[in-house]
Amino acid sequence: MTTSTRPVVLANPNTLSDRAAMGLPDTFVARAPQEALAAHRDLLGAEPAALVALAEDPAEPFARRYAAGTVLGLVGDPRVRPEDPPMADIPAARARLGLDPAEAGPVTARWRHAGVEEEWIAKECPRYEVDLPAFRIALHPVTNAEYRLFLEDTGSTWLPTSWRFGVYPELLANHPVWTVPAEAADAYAAWLAARTGRAFRLPTEAEWEYAASGGDGREFPWGDAFVPGNANTVEEGPLTTTPIGVHPAGRSPFGVHDLAGNVEEYVADDYAPYPGGESVADDLAVTRGTYRVARGGSFTRFGDLARCARRHGWYEREIYAMGFRLAETP
Q1: Radius of gyration for the alpha carbons in the chain, expressed in angstroms and rounded
Q2: Where is the Sulfatase-modifying factor enzyme-like domain (predicted)?
Q3: Which of 245, 76, 242, 81 is nearest to 149 (CA)?
Q4: Could you tell me the pLDDT band of residue 36, with boundaries at 50, 70 and 90?
Q5: Given this model, what pLDDT does residue 115 score?
Q6: Is there a cis peptide before residue 233, judged by omega within 30 degrees of 0?
Q7: What is the β-pairing status of strands 264-270 and 322-324?
Q8: What is the rounded average pLDDT of the residues 284-292?
Q9: How far apart are CA 105 and CA 91, in angstroms?
Q10: What is the pLDDT at residue 287?
Q11: C-beta separation of 207 from 137 below 8 A
Q12: What is the three-class DSSP state of 222?
């Protein structure tokens, strides 16, 4: 994959075309090799377990991890278990979440090149404490293969807009599903809970942030400094979704994959100010009114949205790549 220089976007991205909001020119930009498997033909005969180990090995270069994940999507990825998704156990904790108001200005300044406005960051303020009972959270976002089973079993018409003409993208079976409405994410969790007898649901906003940060105030799941290669964001990513788990250096303190980048993830909560905070009427509030919070950033957006504390939501544009992951009450 070719490393790019960081593009400069000075305007609010919601006032720009999709490509301009991504910092891309109107000409073609290549971020991935034309034939992703050509240099990795040896992987075509590898066992799935070996491919998983390779895809999740941070010592391997991205191109080889991506190739391993691509082969897994073709032959069957053992991490994709629709009725028994791999989960991380998160112990009960008193978590300190959110952002100190004094940091809103500096955070905005660090991401000014991405068009970030301070009112967006102000939604993260103030810091607050919350008691979280033990819970479980999926190691990966829900994939296309899993979502297909939901559609087939329920007859739902919530077809992802990323499935062109509603056709299942079988070559992307182990990629996160996007873009679906929050209601579809809720319905998926309820369907799987009924199907399995387990207490599946979407994570609360506090649970999601704690699973991403470990509650120590770090800015990203891996630490305080943004590292483009640790997540599938627009800075250096292939400008499309990637197979689950191929950015292992970006795992959270609890070992959870893809909480930064790849696709944005709905949580269970609608936007509301934190305790002691003020409601922020930003462009999302103006255009959507009440809206479901999403977390984690995506392949279409800059790393500011991959921050653990960043609060976002769906805006009616294709550039908003909305997916979700499951949580479970033990």
Answers
A1: 19
A2: 117-327
A3: 81
A4: confident
A5: 93
A6: no
A7: parallel
A8: 89
A9: 33
A10: 84
A11: yes
A12: coil
Q: pLDDT higher for 315 or 152?
A: 152
Output the furthest CA–CA distance in the chain (Å, rounded).
Answer: 57
> Is 203 in contact with 211 (CB distance < 8 Å)?
yes
Taking the C-alpha atoms of residue 57 and residue 45, their distance in angstroms, rounded to an integer, is 19
Q: Quick one: tokens of 153?
A: 């079993």
The Cα–Cα gap between 318 and 325 comes to 20
Tokens found for residue 276: 């002691």
Nearest to 316 by CA among 274, 292, 287, 280: 287
**Cα(275)–Cα(130) distance, integer angstroms:** 10
pTM above 0.85, yes or no: yes
Amino acid at 263: V
Q: Are 226 and 261 in contact (CB under 8 A)?
A: no
For 89, the token pair is 């156990």
Distances in Å between the Cα of 157 and the Cα atoms of 52, 94, 191, 192, 319 are: 33, 40, 14, 17, 22
